[in-house]
Amino acid sequence: MLQAIKIINSWVWGPVTLSFLIGLGVYFGIGTKMIPFRKGKRICRMLFQNKGEGELSPFAALMTSLGATVGTGNIAGPATALISGGPGAVFWMWVAGILGSVLKFGEVFLSVRHREKNKKGETAGGPMYVIKNGLPKMFWPLASFYAFFCLTASFGIGSTVQSNAIASVLQGSCGIDPKVTGLIIAITAAGVMAGGIKALGKVSAKLVPLMSLCYVGVSVYIIGTGWRKMSGILLLIFQNAFTAKALGGGAAGTVIRYGMSRGIFSNEAGMGTAGIVHASSKAKDPLQEGL
Hints:
This protein is an all-alpha fold. It is built from 14 helices and 2 strands; from the N terminus they run H-H-H-H-H-H-E-E-H-H-H-H-H-H-H-H. It has helices at 2-12, 15-32, 40-46, 58-67, 72-85, 89-113, 127-134, 141-174, 178-193, 196-225, 230-241, 254-267, 273-278, 286-290, and strands at 116-117, 123-124. The protein has a two-stranded antiparallel ribbon with strand order 1-2. A hairpin with a 5-residue loop joins strand 1 and strand 2 (123-124). The longest helix is centred in the middle third of the chain and has 34 residues, at 141-174.
């Protein structure tokens, strides 16, 4: 099974997919003139406007989406990138973050623009609805494929990685049986999900800001305690990012591949999952929610 996963992983995160995502990010960046980085004040102002139709406030939608990207992906992702790609992978994770902001803007914009009401009267959206409502009929089967693969992925990168990380830490630090941790996580998650998207939004709006502050605070503390080594670390990152191995030598650009792939894993840009949550926002227009 592990060997099968490795084969699939090497294909999915191969040169074709990464080139497509990087190219699309550059294309969106040029087309929008890097709009996420030019509208900071407007973004902060619109974050608390609840004038459109939907189940979540823009702030709750952002926190729910952010909850899937801040945490395990930002810790396990860089760690595996460093081990597999070396220090230079960090630089390409930065690039993935910058391009990812533009990709996220695009996918959320499209998801809100092509959202619709489901049978329960709730607003629903995401890549499957973008394909169904925004593309010719010949592409409609792709909507079902995306929905299936998104559901499948939710058990892996959406649940298994996070629960395993929590269980491993608690077992190593406190001696708690992973089965006990898994059961508690399952019961807690089920309790929140039973309340639907509104309950998920309310919990996320309270927990994610605190989690984000803790994450940033600990990061600043670590950088602060090792500030004397920062110049050497940055030099190592930049030197390794542009070596022959990074630019296509060695194992097909190991540094770029692991840096970009783990960068995308940590922010989920280009995957379309953020659009599913943001489509339930009370945003008055797609541009507002995209920003």
